[in-house]
Design goal:
- The chain has three helices and no strands.
- With 75 residues, it is an all-alpha fold.
């Protein structure tokens, strides 16, 4: 699905919302749209080769963990 079609779907969804839609439902919809955007961006990153293998992530997280343990606790 292209970005243009996604935008068109979102616009239609918003236009079709009843006027008395509770604000909680609108906020939930916004949250869901944000999550969908993040997932789509992640998929695009993966397609473009901008991702890490599981082994690379394990190595990076180990480095981050050891670096965070070196920092003084007051910073």
């Amino acid at each position: 699905m292209t970005l243009k079609l996604i935008k068109e779907d979102i616009i239609k969804l918003i236009k079709d919302l009843p006027e008395d839609t509770p604000s909680e439902e609108i906020e939930e919809l916004i949250d869901l749209l944000y999550v969908k955007k993040q997932v789509l961006e992640g998929l695009e990153d993966f397609k473009q080769g901008r991702s890490y293998s599981l082994e690379e992530m394990k190595s990076l997280s180990g480095k981050w963990k050891s670096e965070s343990q070196k920092k003084p606790s007051g910073s």
